Amino acid sequence: MPATAKFSIALVALIGLCFTTIDAIDHNEAGATTAIKVQQANPTITVTSQPSSPPYAYNPAQLNAKIGQPITITNNDPNGVHSVTAKDGSFSADVPPKGSATLTVKKAGSFPYYCTYHADEHNPASINIS
Length: 130
Ligand SMILES: [Cu+2]
Hints:
Layout: H1 3-27, H2 31-37, E1 44-49, E2 56-59, E3 62-65, E4 71-75, E5 82-86, E6 92-95, E7 100-103, E8 109-114, E9 125-129
Parallel strand pairs: 1-4, 3-9
Antiparallel strand pairs: 1-2, 4-7, 5-6, 5-8, 8-9
The structure holds copper (II) ion.
The site of copper (II) ion (CU) has 6 residues, from loops.
């Protein structure tokens, strides 16, 4: 198949998707509330340094994910390594400055975690696995 034909098919498919999406928004206003509650496709924890106390923050403080679902941890602090370490030892991931890491949790439960590098300098945070 010539490349232009492939492109045309892809374009038609894309346009079709757009109309489907617009249709859903137009005719399902009740769905707007539901959409917010849907599990995010790629759960992410962001670590930032901040001028207030505590000096480092995990966002969101409560993260929901499924068993085995990859959780991305992004470290926005250019100056330090941080970790997401379960208080019960179930998991630990180090995240380099301006870097990211992926974590998966293999059992259900609520896991309070902390940073091994700054034990008392982050906000309290948990990963909730279902
Ligand atoms: Cu830290």
